[in-house]
Amino acid sequence: MDFVQTTFASFISLIPVTLAQSLILGFVVLGIMIPFRMLSFPDLTSEGAFPLGGCVCGVLLAAGASPLTAIAVALIAGFAAGCCTAFIHLRFRIHTLLAGILMMTMLYSVNLRIMGKSNLSVFGAPTVFDWVPFTQPGFPASKIVAVGLLSLAVFVLLNIYFKTERGTAVRAVGANPDMAEAQGINVWAATIGGVGLAGAFSALSGAVMVQSQGFADVNMGLGILINGLAALMIGEAIVGKQSVLRQIAAPFVGAIVYYQLVSLCLAAGMPPPDLKLATGLFVLAMLALPSLRRSRGPAPAREAFRE
């Protein structure tokens, strides 16, 4: 009983911190979802674009740039990284996963070149959280308000965009690129733009995370892809993926639930090194579940046919 009470009390105390972190990392999950679901373009660039955004933001903050300028430049850098991945795939006919691996690998060296070292402290630099009224800068409340409003704005704008003619064209390319091209849609532009947008959101997450934690590190994206996939699976299981609205909501809902579950596991005493194993097994189970259901489905039909 004491163990349950202690675990619950520890979990409750961590909710504000994990909620702020999950909202920030929700943009990475969004950056994973857009190529994966909207474009049928499995991509690994997020694991390189996330630290890219953080490194760019950290260097600019250290140089005295404003927080918004640092975020804007990080967005542009992430967009360029995503565009490069899509171009490698389209121009050289390289598989999407391999193109993402190549870009992710190259971005590690790029991030080191940008910062000039493996990590950079920006403690004391101004952040976007300093501008939130009625809250203390640096505390979870200011982060939850700032990132919550940003998430809401992105959610609304993306929902509007993917229902416009250009947004529908991106979805059409993901559904059937040959048919989309026959309808006069520029497949290259839609693919490069969509993957670039995903890279921009991943870089945005990295930039905001650096402002939240006060330092940038070239290894800050290690494992972020598998965490993002787990969050996406949870979000889609909760809200579904049958409409554009649900597809956009799933990353944010999934990120919130996933990181609360991680917090609960840590509060219950799970060793932190075991979290990666647990996350990988969870994603494997979620991906294998539809296949297991299909393999069980035809059996009754075959028996009925024999009768």
Question: Which keywords apply here?
Answer:
307 residues, mainly alpha, ABC transporter involved in vitamin B12 uptake, BtuC, two-stranded antiparallel ribbon, 12 helices, 2 strands
Task: Quickly name the level 1 CATH class.
Answer: Mainly Alpha
**Shape summary:** globular
Helicity level: over 70%
State the low-pLDDT regions, or none. 301-307
Total count of strands: 2
Name the average pLDDT: 90
Number of helices: 12
User: What's the oligomerization state?
Assistant: single chain
What distance lies between the first and last C-alpha atoms, to the nearest angstrom? 55 Å
Query: How does the major sheet shape up?
Result: 2 strands, antiparallel
Q: How many discrete domains?
A: 1
* Strand order within the widest beta sheet: 1-2
What proportion of the residues form beta strands (DSSP E)?
A: under 5%
Helix-strand string: HHHHEHHHHEHHHH
CATH fold-type name:
ABC transporter involved in vitamin B12 uptake, BtuC
**Class computed from helices, strands and strand pairing:** mainly alpha
Radius of gyration: 21 Å
CATH architecture: Orthogonal Bundle
InterPro entries: ABC_transp_permease
Pfam family, one: BPD_transp_2
Main location: membrane
Transmembrane segments: 12-36, 71-90, 97-116, 144-162, 187-208, 220-239, 248-269, 275-292
Detailed description of the structure:
This protein is mainly α and 307 residues long. It has a single domain, classed as ABC transporter involved in vitamin B12 uptake, BtuC, CATH 1.10.3470. Helix content is 78%, strand content 2%. It is built from twelve helices and two strands. The protein has helices at 2-38, 46-62, 67-92, 96-115, 140-161, 165-175, 177-182, 187-213, 224-239, 244-267, 274-296, 298-306, and strands at 119-121, 215-217. A two-stranded antiparallel ribbon has the order 1-2. Helix 1 runs antiparallel to helix 8, helix 2 (46-62) packs antiparallel against helix 3 and helix 2 (46-62) packs parallel to helix 4 (96-115). The longest helix is centred in the first third of the chain and has 37 residues, at 2-38. It is globular. The relative contact order is 0.18. Mean pLDDT is 90; it is low at 301-307.
